[in-house]
Amino acid sequence: MKTHMTAKNIVLGVCGGIAAYKSVELLRLLKKQGASVRVIMTQNARAFVGPLTFEALSGQAVCTGLFEKGEDASIRHIDWAQASDAVVIAPATANIIGKLAGGIADDALSTFILAVISPVIICPSMNIHMYESKAVQRNLEILRADGYSILNPESGELACGTTGPGRLPEPEVIMDRLLYCLAPKDLIGKQVIVTAGPTQEPIDPVRFISNPSSGKMGYAIARAAAQRGGTVTLITGPTNLPDPTGVTMMRVRTAREMAKAVFDQIDESHIIIKTAAVSDFRPHKEASQKIKKEEDEMTLLLKKNPDILKEVGRRKKNDHILVGFAAETEDLGKNAGKKLAEKNLEIIVGNLVDHPQYGFGSDFNKVTFFYKDGTKEPLAPMEKDAVAHILLDRIVERYLEASNTL
Ligand code: CTP
Q: The pTM is what?
């Protein structure tokens, strides 16, 4: 799988804080996405996690001192500064924040940062009173003004027993910020609507018709579009997923609620991507009380739901880019091609739901892109995050760049 993290040189700076254990997990996630990671630890960080842990996971020597030599006898932290695509300091203590704000370079990490020209993300993590102190807040303001990207700490119960802001965000959240820094900003100024998840069509107050869609594909697309600078609204049916960073969320339940949310926003949008698995039918009537099992058989009369995508295709203007999804059990090319034409789409992303490892609920998908001009592009099996970025790459290359609307 290729992502915007693949083959990137990331430097992870680790300072002495309880949250240093989370940077081990962050390192693991970075490696999983194909990044080459080098770790610089402060003296105090070594009191919390041993350099060997980072060395084993990164597969590279860890820098712990100012006067270590690289393989070619040049000073390691200067070499790394020049080669880095992005730097993340997690956890960042009050001490490193103060040093960077004052331009002090008295150890490997602070000296390295002064020599870096790539984006630097600073993740403060400390006791709430330290974090809220005038000095730390003043220093963070200076760092923001100097162009550093500050990832605010989360609120919660802290290791010191206090409750409030100071907790290092989860590694996945730090990854999102890193991906945001690395992804091309080719969707700036574009309004993107993504739909995701299943819809639920109530039968009575405790039952409904639905399907096993997890929403993962749509959430991945919304997250990727936000990383690329798009203004993204995610209209989602019920899911168990956390909100993607930087995305406006609209939660709906039924197909009709989803239809209204989409139709209300068509005019302002540039790109509409419909991954939602919309229930095609709803019960003709929703019972106001729980239906009792009095008979051996019962008939449920169903009524067709609006085809949201088809209606958007009918209403769309020339510069709208419309993408649909088709999960099929047979004849993928024929079925996807038919939907592409009938719904007036630029791209339809088709997959065969014949493999338990891909599709509904899985983190992976094996899809084929079918384009309006009749061509198709099968992709290898890969994570949904990677599918999301490749889809956005194609939208940009084929439709935005081609029409010079960027
Ligand atoms: N779709 C929609 N509204 C519906 C049904 C589907 O917007 N009522 C959208 C889906 O979000 C998806 C695309 O249409 O992007 C294809 O959905 P799919 O369920 O595969 O196709 P249908 O048109 O419902 O056709 P069928 O169920 O007969 O295969």
A: 0.85
